[in-house]
Each structure stands twice: as C-alpha cells, then as structure tokens.
Amino acid sequence: MNPQLEGIEEIAGTYAFDLRTSNRTLKINRFFWNMIGADWRARFVADEEGTMEAAGLTEEEKALVRARDWLGLVKYGVNFFVLEKFGRVVKKTNLEIYAIMRGETFEEFMKTRQVPEAR
User: Fold this and answer.
1) What pTM did the predictor assign?
2) Closest CA to 99 of 90, 107, 91
3) Is the four-CA dihedral 25, 28, 32, 34 of positive or negative sign?
C-alpha cells in the first residue's frame, strides 16, 4: 500500500483513487472517458446496454451506470473527472450530482452554498 494512503479508510467520505484502483477500474473509467467523443456519446444514447457490453463492463459496473449511482461509482473507483463527462451526456450538472451524492435535493443542496442563487 502507498504509505501516503495509510489510514485513509478511517476518514469518512474519502475514497482514494490510487494505482491499484486505477488498474481494477480501467475499463469503466475508459468507458466514461470515451464520452468526450461525439460518436461514443451518440452510441451510448442510442444503445446504453450495447455500449456498456462493447466496453467490457462487468455486471456490477453496468448496474452502477444504469442506476446513475454517482456515489456508488466514486466508491467503486471511477475517477470523478471522467464521471463528469458522463454527467453531461445524461444531462446532469456537477451541482446536481453533488446534491445526489449527499442524498439531498438540488434545492436543499443549493441552500448550503455561499451563493445559493448561483446556478
């Protein structure tokens, strides 16, 4: 284990993305990274299941994608920067995703911001 990550599991809400996680979750992270391409996005929108199958995702990974389980995906080991690309494809903003990850409605979440009227 990376000595810099020793004890990380004791910090609530912290999900380390290290080399081991990166190796284990390479296919799903690549799947989301590919959302930068218009052709891949169109393919996903037209056939989610076929696109996930073509990417070689496991059944667990497919279930997380189908459920749009944002926090589950991060806990599983999806890098948030590639997850943002998926958010755009399914028409979710970062702020909406943050609210969902916190178990709040968008309006509840926005009330916790320093500028709650900012969108």
Assistant:
1) 0.81
2) 107
3) positive
